[in-house]
Amino acid sequence: ETSGRLQVDYFSSPATTISVFVENTRTKYLDLVRRDTDKNSGARLNYLVTHTINLGLEGRHTERTSTVSTAAYVDNRVLMSIMYQTGRLFTPTFGR
Questions:
Q1: Cα distances (angstroms) measured from residue 69 to each of 7, 35, 36, 40, 50
Q2: Residue 40 and residue 68: Cα distance in Å, rounded?
Q3: What are the beta bridge partners of residue 77?
Q4: Contact assessment for residue 39 and residue 6, using Cβ atoms and an 8 Å cutoff
Q5: Distance (Å, rounded) from C-alpha 31 to C-alpha 49?
Q6: Across-strand partners of 84?
Q7: CA end-to-end span of the chain, whole Å?
Q8: Which of 7, 36, 45, 81 is deepest in the core (most CB within 10 A)?
Q9: Residue 74: helix, strand or coil by DSSP?
Q10: What is the pLDDT along the chain (96 residues), one digit of tens a residue?
Q11: Separation CA 62–CA 54 (nearest Å)
């Protein structure tokens, strides 16, 4: 299996981040005469509403091509997320 991923993040403001990503994975099976290629691409928007609440919106396109015709597919998704954070799990200390 070989793969690569590229992601570009743009911080448009202290509260807003825009991310664009592409990923490609090629799988060759040793026991079978089969090769799969998976391609993922998409964009994500993160918005920090308060210091504890983060809203996210992501669109993603996933496609698999394969030498086995029943293993090939295309999948389009939209994900909306609301994340709540209470704070850091630990506070790093330096120079003790």
A1: 30, 11, 10, 19, 48
A2: 19
A3: 60
A4: no
A5: 51
A6: 53
A7: 45
A8: 36
A9: strand
A10: 999 999 999 999 989 999 999 999 999 998 888 999 999 999 999 999 988 899 999 999 999 999 998 999 999 999 999 999 887 666 667 765
A11: 25
